[in-house]
Amino acid sequence: MTKKRDYGQFCGLASAMTVIGERWTLLVIRELLIGPTRFNELAENLPGIGPNLLSERLRNLTAAGVVEHAPVPGDGRGRVYRLTAVGEELRGPVLELARWGLQFLTDADAAGATRAAWGFLAVQAMTDQANIPAVDEEYEFRVDEEVFTIHVADGAVRFHRGPSAHPAIVINSDSEMFVRIGARMISPFDAIVTGAVKIEGDPEAVHRCTRLLQLA
C-alpha cells in the first residue's frame, strides 16, 4: 500500500478520510457500487483518471480491505474488482453524499460526462424511506441503454439492474435529463410536457413513485 499521510487525529472521520479521501477514490467506489467491474471498464467509465492513478487507487483500497479482485472465468489474465463487505458498508454514506451534492449541480456541469448506470445509484440516493408506498408494486426505469427497477413490497424497497416482470409504471429518459430531475433543475411535470420524459402506467403509481423519490 502506498504510504499515505494521515491527519494525526484520533477520530473516526479522519481515519475514514485517510482511506477514501484522495481524489478519484470515491468515484472508483461509486463505480463498484453499481457492480463488479474490470479494470478497463473502470478506466473507460472514469475519463481523466489515467491507468497509473487508477491502479494506485485500487491497490490502496485493496490493501485497506475495501476492494478485492477475483479471476474472470475463461480469462486467465483477467480480473474483476468488487467491493468487500467492508466496502459495501459505504453504500449508505456515498448515496447520501451524492444526494446532498445534487443541489450544487449547474447547467455548466451538464457538459461533463454522464452515464445511464449512474441513474441506478441516483434512484437509491433519492429514495425517501418515510414515503414507502403501502402497496406492493414495481417501477421500471429505462435510462439510455440501462434498465433498472425499484421493487416495493412489505414496506421495504429493493433495487436491481434489469427490467421488471410486472411494472406498475415504466419511465423513459436520457441520462442527462434524469440527473436534471434529481437535481431539481427541472420538474418531472415540465420534463414530461417537453417530451424529454415519458411515463406509461397507472397514474396513482406515478404519484406514489414521485413521493418515494422526493419529487412530488
How are the SSEs placed, and which strands pair?
Elements: H1 12-20, H2 25-34, E1 37-38, H3 39-45, H4 51-63, E2 67-72, E3 75-83, H5 85-88, H6 91-101, H7 118-126, E4 137-143, E5 146-153, E6 156-161, E7 169-173, H8 175-182, H9 188-193, E8 198-201, H10 203-212
Parallel strand pairs: 4-7
Antiparallel strand pairs: 1-3, 2-3, 4-5, 5-6, 7-8
Helix pairs in contact: 6-7, 7-8
Arithmetic mean pLDDT:
94
DSSP strand (E) fraction? 15-25%
The 3D shape can be described as globular
Oligomer status: single chain
Poorly predicted parts: none
The rounded distance between the terminal residues' Cα atoms is: 47 Å
- Strands in their spatial order, largest beta sheet: 6-5-4-7-8
Q: Report the major sheet.
A: 5 strands, mixed
**Whole-angstrom Rg:** 19 Å
Order of helices and strands: HHEHHEEHHHEEEEHHEH
Organism: Saccharothrix lopnurensis
Keywords: DNA-binding, Transcription, Transcription regulation
Domain HTH hxlR-type: 11-109
Pfam family, one: HxlR
Structural commentary:
The protein is of the alpha+beta class and 216 residues long. The chain is built from ten helices and eight strands. Strands 6-5-4-7-8 form a five-stranded mixed beta sheet. Strand 5 and strand 6 form a beta hairpin. Helix 6 crosses helix 7. The longest helix has 13 residues. The mean pLDDT is 94.
Brief overview:
InterPro entries: ArsR-like_HTH, HTH_HxlR, SCP2_sterol-bd_dom, SCP2_sterol-bd_dom_sf, WH-like_DNA-bd_sf, WH_DNA-bd_sf. It contains ten helices and eight strands.
What labels would you give this structure?
single chain, 216 residues, alpha+beta, 5-stranded mixed beta sheet, 3-stranded antiparallel beta sheet, 10 helices, 40% helix, globular, transcription, SCP2_sterol-bd_dom_sf, Winged helix-turn-helix transcriptional regulator
